[in-house]
Design a protein that fits this description.
Layout (H helix, E strand, L loop, with lengths): L10 E5 L4 E2 H8 L4 H10 L2 E3 L2 E2 L5 E2 L4 E5 L16 E4 L3 E6 L16 H11 L7 E2 L8 E7 L2 H12 L4 E9 L6 E5 L2 E3 L7 E3 L7 E9 L3 E8 L6 H8 L22 E9 L6 E5 L4 H7 L3
Parallel strand pairs: 10-17
Antiparallel strand pairs: 1-6, 2-5, 3-4, 3-6, 7-8, 8-10, 9-10, 11-16, 11-17, 12-15, 13-14, 15-16, 17-18
Length: about 300
């Protein structure tokens, strides 16, 4: 089991609960990947009770396994920027991302990204590691975003994200009133030919499922909760446009631009298990000002 009070972002400490071969404990109990085990072995970074022990050797109940994850510096620049941290432990940082911020540098957007801001935040908080995003949000989408403090956490959390083991909900503003108060959209999504950005529902697309529920209604627009069962690019935006209710401000999918100049989509809640925590973590992110102002009019 993980020993409380001994964990660090770059240092794993485990108390052996049953006699096993060391490698089996590292993989099955601690969740370390085979690739990482190979790298740790080359650095002699795994110790038992303070001494080196080979992967094929047994470990005994009560012995302490320590793993030095090392450090991996980033090649990206540090920039000062506003970072709204809503949760932190030895493995994970969660932020409430503002709209209009690119998450990761691209060929046309090398600076002013959330990654640049988080690199600076890491250094200010003594974290000598590169920033690793566990998931992404579009530039104009706001809300919860998870960041790993080390490659061990990135592997564990990315696998959980891929296996849909995290429960995410979004809220969105749509024009008008929906005919049904809740339901499910099951429609495959693919990418348009010769269009690298926009997605559309198509027969030969990837399976995509979205659940929706109306939270508030007004005369001109409504607030809905959206739960992605699958995780396709632009899934929520594409699905809502497909059933005739594009998001307010979403010019790419035919949304009304009268009220907002970006898609009214916010990642509002997230439930997950952090790698070295026993209990489920529940996070909620406050709405940004532009969406809150419209919600107040409902």
């Amino acid at each position: 089991m993980w020993i409380p009070g001994k964990q660090k972002y770059n240092y794993l400490v485990w108390s052996v609960e049953k006699e096993e071969v060391l490698k089996k404990v590292l993989i099955e109990e601690m969740g370390i990947s085979l690739r990482m085990i190979s790298e740790l072995k080359s650095r002699r970074a795994v110790n038992v009770n303070g001494t080196l022990r080979f992967n094929h050797e047994p470990v005994h109940v009560g012995e302490i396994i320590t793993v030095d994850l090392g450090e991996n510096r980033s090649e990206y620049g540090l920039e000062e920027g506003v970072v709204d941290v809503i949760y932190e432990d030895e493995d994970i940082v969660a932020v409430n991302k503002s709209p209009f911020i690119v998450v990761h540098p691209t060929g046309t957007h090398l600076t002013g990204t959330l990654l640049n801001y988080m690199e600076s935040w890491f250094r200010q908080n003594g974290i000598l590691e590169k920033v690793r995003f566990i998931s992404r949000l579009d530039r104009d989408t706001s809300g919860i975003l998870l960041i790993a403090k080390n490659r061990y956490a990135h592997h564990r959390m990315s696998q959980a994200h891929q296996d849909m083991m995290m429960q995410k909900t979004y809220v969105a503003l749509i024009e008008g009133k929906m005919k049904r108060q809740e339901g499910e959209i099951n429609a495959p999504i693919g990418r348009r030919e010769n269009d690298g950005i926009k997605r559309e529902v198509m027969e030969d697309g990837q399976t995509a499922i979205t659940k929706y529920k109306v939270l508030k209604e007004g005369e001109k627009f409504s607030l809905v909760e959206l739960t992605p069962v699958t995780g396709r690019t632009h899934q929520l935006r594409c699905h809502m446009a497909y059933i005739g209710y594009p998001l307010i401000g979403d010019s790419l999918y035919g949304g009304n631009m009268e009220y907002m100049n970006r898609q009214a989509l916010h990642s509002v809640t997230l439930e997950f298990f952090s790698p070295r925590k026993e209990e489920k973590i529940y996070l909620k992110a406050e709405l940004p000002q532009d969406m809150q102002e419209l919600v107040n009019r409902l």
